[in-house]
Amino acid sequence: MRPSRRLLQPAFALLCSAMLLGTAEAAMEPLDDSELAEISGQALINLDALTYNGFEYTRINFGTDIDMLLNVDELRLGNYPRSGANTVSNQPADIWIDNFALGRVDNANSPNASVVPFQVRDPYLELAFKTNASGVREVVGVRLGFGRARGDLSGDIHSLTGVMQGFATGAASTAREYYMKQNNLNNATCVFDANCLALTVAGDAEIYAQVELLKAGTGDTTINGQPINRATQIGVPNGESFHTDNALLETLLPALSRNNGDCTASGMPACFPLLNYKSIFVGDRTQADLNLGGAQGIFFALQNQNVPWQDLASSTGNFIETQKGAFANFAKTGTGADAIYPFVVSLYEALNGAARVSTCMGGQGKGC
Asked: What pLDDT, in 10s, does the model give residues 290-316?
């Protein structure tokens, strides 16, 4: 495995810059006991250590907020030969994103250009250790993660390995429009097409589904019980479907909109190339407060064997199993009605793709 420094070097530089900028310039003066008694707080940097299932972990926590606008020409992690049934593409790296960016620039090509940063709270760096067969304790994994994160993530995503759980939602009429366009139908001919007629009956009812990384052509998220890697598509998994809160439609919709292993639902594609989505908003777009709108549990990891990493977004201290190589974690937190997703896309974006937001000052939209 050849870990790419393109992610880690900018991240370290940003962390160091944030710490330097956050340091006050003032004369050092001693405090007496009464003054010290009135002061409480937490160090900017602290360490956590734990053991689990034969692994030892040391985590460096940076108790700080970072606002960033980051552009990277090419991000490759886990760039090595890989094979096996659950390797679902011939891409050369576990994670490969060209023109990777965090944050955006509004009114980029005007005098009123303004940076809307990607916000990070409580970033951390963690090392995993294990004693090998020769009795030598060695580093077997490293991850860079965030307590909370909110903002635009952009790039040309060629492959992803890990967990990417999003929420797609919109009116059934949006799906109907798309279906009619793809099948060259109009209002008159729509009534003679079963899928189009069903979507017409659904009207403007909201439909929604969880979307995940999956295998092109089938929608499989696992193969022989193992998670897929080097995915090039995202969508409604095999066996899953769109749902609605309309009780009458809910009895009908799952049967009509289920991906039955062919990456189609209601005659429409249910699996989409990651390259369609040039920008994704991480977190809750409607909540400007990072505490309320920031996604939790996001991390990038590199490991030379399968490593379990603690889920810091879980109150139960669960561990997330990761495969050898590179791994990106954008997982939902909570379950059922209490689930919170790291990103939400409109049904229109899910079907048609999402355009890239500007991430550079000036005329160029990417590749600053």
From this structure: 999 999 999 999 999 999 999 999 878
Cα(263)–Cα(218) distance, integer angstroms: 5
Are 228 and 189 within 8 A, CB to CB? Answer: no
Residues paired with residue 118 on neighbouring β-strands, in sequence order: 68
Q: Is 17 left (phi over 0), alpha (psi -120 to 50) or beta?
A: alpha
Closest-CA residue to 245 (of 275, 286, 282, 204): 204
User: Is the confidence at residue 17, as pLDDT, over 80?
Assistant: no
Radius of gyration of the chain (CA): 23
SS3 129: strand
Query: In the beta sheet, which residues pair with residue 116?
Result: 104
Residue 114: partners with Cβ closer than 8 Å, 6 or more residues away: 105, 106, 107
Q: What is the DSSP string of 154-209?
A: EEEEEEB-EEE-EEEEEEHHHHHHHHHHHTT--HHHHTTSHHHHHHHHHTT-EEEE
Residue type, 295: A
- pTM, full prediction: 0.85
Burial-class residue 81 by CB neighbours within 10 Å (0-12, 13-18, 19+): exposed
Q: Name the CA dihedral angle for 302, 230, 209, 309, rounded to a multiple of 10 degrees.
A: -20
Tokens at 170, concatenated: 């919109």
Whether residue 90 contacts residue 22, with contact meaning beta carbons closer than 8 Å, is answered with no
Q: In whole angstroms, how far apart are CA 258 and each of 53, 261, 265?
A: 38, 9, 5
